[in-house]
UniProtKB/TrEMBL annotation:
Highest taxon listed in the record's lineage: Eukaryota
Record field: compositional bias (Polar residues): 1-10
Composition-biased stretches (Low complexity): 173-199
InterPro entries: Gig2-like, IPNS-like_sf
Disordered as annotated region, ranges: 1-30, 173-200
Native source organism of the sequence: Dichotomopilus funicola
One matching Pfam family: Gig2-like
Protein name: DUF1479-domain-containing protein
Amino acid sequence: MASLDATPSNLPKAEGDISDSFASLSGRPSQPLPNRFRELKLRLVQGHEDAVVASWKRLLAVLRKENNLVARMGPSIIPEVRFSHFDEDLKKAKGEIEKRGVAVIRGVIPEDEARAYKFEVEEYVRQNPQTRGFPQENPQVFELYWSPTQTRARTHPNLLTVQRALMTNFWHTSPTATTNPKPNSSSSSGGTPKSQSVSLHTSLAYADRLRIRQPGDAHFALGPHQDGGSVERWEEFGYGNRHLFPSGGHGVYDAVFRGEWDAPLSQSGQDGQRKGGGYDPFNATARASAVTDLYNGLGACSMFRMFQGWLAMSESGPGRGTLLVNPLVKETAVYALLRPFFRARRGLPEGEGSERGWGKGGFLEEENWEFTGGEKMTSDLQGAVPGCGQEFPEGLHPHLELERTMVHVPEVRPGDYVVWHCDTIHAVDRKHNGTGDSSVLYIPVCPTTKGNAEYAARQRDAFLRGTPGPDFPGGEGESRHIGRATDEYVQKHCTPAGVQTLALEELPVTQNDTVNGKAAVAEANQILGFS
């Protein structure tokens, strides 16, 4: 797509709500993808076909074993960390968090304070009855971004401490990665393109929505999905980073398409990219350059969120309108990427196992799945719709066995912070069967990069106007809301570090940051107009 050096996510967006982000919620019909996706798939695995087939077989063996473990352990498989013993607990849980891609961090905000957040938000909505939400007749997810409550929560000192620890303990960059000397220049316009610098010590705020889900609700029945785009995960100008590296070979998922997803990780080269080696879910250098919204989707995130997250404002738990995750971040992401290259030779008959010796077990066996290379290749990318999140409809990704491997996060109390890796497959309870509301503020973890700083500059303008952030449905938003947060409010009620994350003041250079990280902060400050 030659036109993709323009940035669709910079364009104004229509009004809407969270349902517009997902084909399943909006009722958008599934349409066959055009032939260019078939050609794309052929290019992705060209010369590596045999290796991809072999890697698929290894992957299925791993999934069989891990799925059984996940199903047996349920919510207890989710690592937990106490904020009161943060450093100690985080160190102990590090390996499990890396494997699972999700964690519950207890007591980040004092419980009474977090519980009060919900009552403040409800009063804000009462004062502003024009507030939009989904579903319209009984909102559960509100189109709110700039309430005083959200602004204070996302800049809370405890939360910023946790975000920095999550970035520095789990993600890594190459110390040799550099940025373009001119922030506003196109990195593919000539000369040798450079990978993006990333600061893991300095976070930027991302203004997202909030949820107050009432008992009995079944409208916000969002099934298994990944955020951060859908078809972009395969596209060369999306996660493939061809806008920076026209010759290819520097995409987020290159190792997967070479059939080397499980190979040992190798050392970074001089351009900041890992040469060869397996797929690394925590390589920030590659992720920082990916374009995750090529189609200007309503709510399609264009900012690099290392971890997505929400802060609880109420008690909640399994079956009570809460989050479900598949706690196997690497293997499930790889399966989603490889699934479009394979198809079943023999389908699963109605009434599972109605034929002697044949049923779900035989259907999932590796011998029943063939590689669709060459003339057999199709344009299919199961669950991917341009402009929407990547979904996992029932039956399209059978080896993930999502009916038994999507597990609830454990019981939470107000002030607990739940985080999950940006590749994690997640969902919400189809029905809230509890007796009290399930309420959260969506607050992800975002490092400082060139792309994130560019987004933060546009988000700052939206904040000052009171309109939704650039990723979200447009319209007047909260521009006429009584009592919304303003620059004056932030300066009075937030710490200096919190004000900085909102791009309202110059970002600090942390002395223990890498040369790469310091370069990222310097470039971000230039983009934000502070130098």
